[in-house]
Design a protein that fits this description.
heterodimer; A: 635 residues; Immunoglobulin-like; 5-stranded antiparallel sheet; 21% helix; elongated; B: 275 residues; alpha+beta; two-stranded antiparallel ribbon; 7 strands; 11% strand; flat
């Protein structure tokens, strides 16, 4: 039955409606010849630019007597296309009626109508011939038995992912004549998985090739794996592919295979094969298809529905084709392998008349929407009418676009039209190429009526003569690098004033330090240090000087420690006085002896046996030790 | 031996110079080819060649100027494409970025913008020129280096003033120093602030021009921004308007247009080439 349906679908009638000019309306029928009691599908596809919203109302399919139909199913549509580098998006809906033919004869079904976004969309009426007996063209009312892949029925419930034209054959169909068992172990290599991410069921998405250039075809494939026996798909959604232009394509026949993964026999099948064209450079994401697995072996999901699984995301690395070797006029996205054939007629015209140039661009890839036309004086190319025929045999997008130009010849003479061309990037050869078609010459005879048109003023002549092209490249203006990009600028900006402030501060600091040092130099400690130093320095050569320095040091040490000016005290009374002031006996004795030794050395000289250096050393030692000594309570 | 070295040295110096004189660079050849296409009225070919030149990173005010000429001429022809005048405005804006003293480019840009405004006047589209934000307007009063020079002068004045106050004991020097400190500090602060501001705007945004018929500002998710009630249309940026690109994503650019901010499709914006 599915074969028959597919064949019928291929005969679908598509027609654009002229009633709703802002909408794009197509009518389709699965077959135009059905058997009595069989069903057929009528589709109304409405697309718009979405500016008026996408509300749907007043859906009707007028049926002749002898035919019945249920309410239509609705399937939202979205289409993205790039024309001349501009991305446009269209939204719409597909309405599908399942019509049952209950009476033999020739009938006229429709036209189907609907109001979409406030505008009336009307399809075309469809002639249907209903014959007695089965034709194989329609659908039977009931399905036969359990089919794990019944979601692939393109018109079954109207919510299919797939367009008409596919023949999805299940290996689990219970028709004894067609029954197949899952094939093992010969399964396609694309289904091979080293490790199952889930032991019950999982979806897997892949994309090839990767990386690609903008406009090069990649194919997104989504595979379903069920580890608990046969399953049917519940509410599968479309994989995400926001950054890609997609073409509808699917496997000709969905086949299930037994694929052993990690010791578990999974029933695996390819769900979706989607040719896509990246719209821009970057790391683009696709995938994330969701689907419910329903079957005896599959537990229900958390919400009670079928076990839901979603595929992984895949990242596609997209770059722009290389700049090296890029021909002028190349548009990003023109990628593939193309050739152009062109016809021109007539070859002889009067000036002011037009000729027709039909150029057919064909090849592999997302065939571009625009050709480069030659620019010749006296030749005006009007916007072309475009027809296309795109296919995806074997999942490879290819086809042709035919550009029908009206070319106005305004000046008499023999005009060489030149050539129409398309620069494109060939990803297989990794280089640019140009598809060309030479158009030949046109003989244009003078026409007095054409002069009149030539004299008509142009509407936007305000810009005439405003700019005059420059023949040569002038000197390049010198580029002054911004000062602020140089760290030295910021340093210089603040260093100078801060430098003055810093210098002033430093000078003040130095001045204060000097003052402090001066004050410090006048203190008793400083004098003591000076005296001791002098004593040491003078000892080898100047005994008298050294002795005087030692004496001075001792008196300063006593004054520092006790606040007593000892020079005014008789040396014979000094010891007692020091003890009285709290100095330890031993220290008082030592100091007295030192002073006596000083007198001895002064008056007797070297014969006294006292070494001036040793004397200075003892004085320093006593002064240092005395500084840390505690005083007893002075009496 | 010595003679050999002299000859070798002469060859090393002379050959590259001779090569430079004899053979124009690839960019120069492409420019010449584009100019020749312009002369014979092949505007699309000229545009293709000059755009390719720009794609290759060749930046020159005269190449940008001729690109503007090609777009204007195509806009005047029967082969006009939407956005041609916007692209011409972008090319001339680029000329003025590269060579601010180009009077012909300045005149041409004003004429093109006037023509765009005239064409859109009936549709009630916002004027092509929009007032910049206060900060950007203030910093763009002078060139960044002028602000920097002002800051340097302020720094010098402040330094002299401080030095006079600190190191010279005479009363007259002290007064002069005080004036120098006051004036120098103001100049330094204003100049340095404006320099820093101009530098920030230069590094954080790129000047660009709208090259679509009209560009509707979007939010981050790509939905059109709502129109403010009771105000002029501040969400539709007209063709040829100058904007600043603040952030670039693969599918959207964040732009500042006057005091408005929003997102635009990259195809609607042409970022100006700078050196």
């Amino acid at each position: 039955m599915r074969h028959a349906f597919t064949a019928a679908a291929a005969l679908a009638v598509f027609a654009a409606s002229s009633a709703a000019h802002a909408l794009e309306v197509q009518t389709a029928v699965s077959t135009q010849r059905v058997g009595l009691g069989e069903q057929f599908i009528v589709q109304l596809i409405v697309m718009s630019d979405g500016q008026n919203g996408n509300t749907l109302a007043d859906v009707r399919l007028p049926l002749p007597p002898g035919m019945t139909a249920g309410p239509p199913s609705r399937s939202p549509q979205q289409r993205v296309s790039i024309i001349n580098g501009q991305m446009t998006q269209r939204v719409g809906v597909t309405l599908s009626w399942t019509v049952t033919a209950n009476k033999a004869g020739s009938f006229r079904v429709g036209p189907p109508t609907a109001t979409f976004g406030g505008e009336r969309a009307q399809g075309n009426p469809i002639p249907i011939e209903v014959v007695a007996g089965a034709t194989g063209g329609g659908q039977q009312r009931q399905r036969r038995g359990f089919d794990p892949f019944n979601f692939f029925d393109p018109f079954g419930q109207g919510n299919s992912l797939f367009p008409p034209g596919f023949n999805f054959k299940s290996p689990f169909d219970d028709d004894p004549s067609e029954q197949q068992q899952p094939e093992e172990p010969t399964y396609p290599d694309e289904l091979r998985v080293d490790k199952a991410p889930d032991q019950i069921a999982f979806l897997r998405a892949t994309v090839t090739p990767n990386p690609v250039v903008v406009g090069q075809q990649v194919t997104l494939r989504v595979y379903a794996y069920g580890g608990r026996g046969q399953f049917s798909a519940e509410s599968p959604n479309e994989p995400s592919h926001a950054d890609f232009l997609t073409y509808d394509s699917g496997p000709d026949q969905v086949k299930a295979y037994l694929v052993p993964v990690s010791g578990i026999r999974f029933i695996a099948a390819k769900l979706r094969e989607l040719p896509m064209f990246p719209l821009h450079a970057g790391t683009l994401r696709a995938g994330n298809m969701k689907m419910g697995f329903a079957g005896r072996g599959y537990p229900p999901g958390p919400n009670g529905g079928a076990l839901s699984r979603e595929s992984n995301w895949v990242n596609v690395v997209v770059t722009e084709p290389p700049l090296n070797g890029r021909p002028p006029g190349y548009k990003i996205g023109d990628v593939g392998e193309y050739h152009i054939d062109a016809t021109v007629e007539p070859r002889r015209v009067l000036a002011g008349e037009s000729i027709a140039v039909v150029a057919k661009l064909a090849g592999i890839g997302n065939v571009p929407f625009k050709l480069q036309t030659p620019e010749t004086r006296g030749v005006e190319w009007l916007e072309p009418a475009l027809t296309e025929k795109m296919e995806t045999p074997g999942g490879v997008v290819q086809g042709s676009r035919t550009f029908s130009y009206v070319v106005r010849m305004t000046e008499p003479g023999t005009v060489d039209l030149g050539e129409v061309s398309l620069p494109y990037y060939d990803p297989k050869r990794h280089q640019y190429a140009i598809a060309r078609a030479t158009l030949g010459q046109i003989e244009v005879k003078p026409n007095p009526n054409a002069v009149k048109a030539k004299l008509e003023p142009k509407p936007n002549d305000r810009l005439a003569g405003v700019l005059k092209a420059r023949d040569t490249l002038g000197p390049m203006p010198a580029v002054q690098k911004p000062f602020s990009d140089r760290p030295a600028f910021w340093v210089a900006l603040f260093l100078a004033p801060f430098g003055v402030v810093f210098a002033g501060g430093a000078l003040s600091f130095a001045s204060r330090t000097r003052e402090k040092l001066r004050e410090r130099g006048a203190s008793l400690d400083a004098q003591l240090e000076t005296a001791l130093r002098e004593a040491r320095e003078l000892a080898p050569n100047d005994t008298q000087g050294s002795v005087a320095a030692v004496e001075r040091a001792l008196f300063l040490a006593i004054e520092t420690k006790l606040g007593l000016k000892a020079r005014a005290i008789l040396k014979s009374e000094l010891r007692a006085t020091l003890i009285e002031r709290g100095l330890p006996n031993a220290r008082a004795e030592a100091l007295s002896r030192l002073l006596e030794d000083c007198d001895t050395l002064r008056f007797v000289g070297a014969n006294s046996g006292i070494d001036p250096a040793e004397l200075a050393q003892r004085a320093a030692k006593n002064a240092a030790e005395m500084r840390g000594e505690k005083l007893s309570n002075p009496s | 031996m010595r003679r050999f070295f002299v000859i070798l040295l002469t060859l090393l110096v002379a050959l590259p110079a001779a090569h430079g004189l004899a053979a124009p660079s690839e960019s120069e050849r492409d420019f010449a080819a584009a100019s020749e296409a312009l002369k014979r009225g092949a505007y699309t070919e000229a545009i293709d060649r000059l755009e390719l030149l720009a794609d290759r990173g060749f930046v020159h005010p005269d190449a940008s100027f001729n690109r503007a000429v090609a777009y204007v001429e195509r806009a005047r022809s029967s082969a006009a494409s939407p956005g041609d005048l916007g692209r011409a405005a972008a090319a001339l804006s680029e000329v003025l970025v590269l060579r601010p003293s180009d009077e012909q480019a300045e005149l041409g840009l004003s004429r093109i913008r006037a023509e765009i405004s005239r064409r859109h006047a009936r549709e009630g589209v916002a004027p092509v020129m929009a007032r910049d934000s206060l900060g950007r307007a203030a910093t763009s009063l002078f060139d960044e280096n002028v602000w920097a020079t002002l800051a340097l002068a302020g720094s010098l004045l402040l330094t002299v003033g401080l030095a006079l106050r600190r190191f010279v004991q005479r009363t007259s020097a002290g007064l002069t120093g005080a004036i120098g400190i006051g004036l120098g500090a103001v100049l330094l602060l204003v100049g340095a602030g404006m320099t820093a501001g101009a530098r920030h705007f230069r590094l954080s945004s790129s000047p660009a021009v709208i090259v679509a018929d009209e560009a509707r500002l979007l939010d981050e998710t790509g939905k059109p921004l709502p129109q403010r009630r009771g105000s002029a249309d501040s969400t539709s940026v007209p063709e040829g308007a100058s904007v600043y690109v603040l952030e670039r994503r693969p599918t959207l650019y964040r732009v500042a247009w006057g005091s408005s901010e929003g997102w635009l499709n990259p195809g609607q914006v042409r970022i100006l080439a700078t050196r």
